[in-house]
Design a protein that fits this description.
- The protein is an all-beta fold.
- The protein contains no helices and 31 strands.
- The termini are far apart.
Length: 258
């Protein structure tokens, strides 16, 4: 428990705990990126952050053998962290996370965002299940959905990627479930090697190009893909792949590969 007036004096350390963590009103403890907080044990751990925006974590690792970790949602202050790692079979019920670094999700992990928004200023490597349920998740750098990973957007949730254009690809090799809500990739190319599950009224919105060249791997049965913006983009969809519904809006497009 970090009480009012408490400060940190940790420059390169690790704190391991199996219980709850509390940043109470009036503490200025900001642990910094050289420090790590590791949640262990087989019980439930709760993170309390009261109504302020001064305190924060360094690196956070969820390394439990049972139970789960949750963020108390009675207050609207952000949970600030330098990075977040969710190890195999760990679950985190998030609420207004702001990571200045990366998010790494191992196979079998679950990050469920139920309210407000989570923001990752770094990159995301997702081999687990990222579930956005009526909330918003924003990623500023690379987003990679690895083989076996799952991204689910439901209950009018929203996913945004703001990575600046480099000519490379954001790779979706796992399962994308865009069931209800929106997914917008603003300024980078996207590569699909598996078919997304699109809801009947869902729209996948892309501000740059798209590639789906693995044979018979991109065949959505419903939903739409919309290309938007004024930037030049290339669409490569071949080898038995196809769109269910394709919309082009104010974009310069090169001739598709046949």
């Amino acid at each position: 428990v970090w009480n009012e007036g408490s400060v940190d004096d940790i420059t390169n350390g690790e704190i391991t705990l199996s219980g709850d963590w509390k940043f109470l009103q009036g503490t200025n403890a900001a642990l910094g990126s050289g420090n790590t907080v590791r949640f262990v044990g087989n019980n439930v751990s709760e993170i309390y952050i009261t109504e302020f925006d001064n305190a924060g974590f360094g690196n956070v690792i969820l390394d439990k053998t049972g139970g789960y970790t949750t963020r108390n949602n009675n207050y609207s202050a952000s949970m600030k962290a330098a990075s977040l790692t969710i190890n195999e079979d760990n679950t985190f019920y998030s609420y207004k996370l702001r990571s200045s670094g990366d998010l790494n999700m191992a196979a079998g992990s679950l990050l469920q965002i139920n309210q407000l928004s989570d923001e990752v200023e770094g990159s995301v490597q997702c081999s687990g299940h990222l579930k956005i349920d009526g909330a918003t998740c924003s990623v500023d750098q690379n987003f990679t959905l690895n083989t076996g990973g799952i991204l689910t957007i439901t209950n009018q949730g929203a996913f945004n990627n703001y990575k600046s254009y480099t000519g490379n690809f954001l790779t979706f090799a796992g399962t994308l479930n865009l069931l209800s809500g929106s997914m917008v990739i603003w300024d980078e190319n996207v590569r699909f090697t598996t078919t997304p599950n699109l809801g009947a009224n869902s729209v996948l919105e892309l501000g740059r190009g798209m590639q789906a060249t693995t044979a018979n791997a991109f065949q959505p049965a419903q939903g739409s893909v919309r290309f938007f913006g004024s930037q030049f983009a290339t669409i490569q969809v071949n080898n038995g792949n196809y769109f269910h519904d394709l919309s082009l809006s104010l974009i310069h497009i090169s001739e598709p590969t046949r």
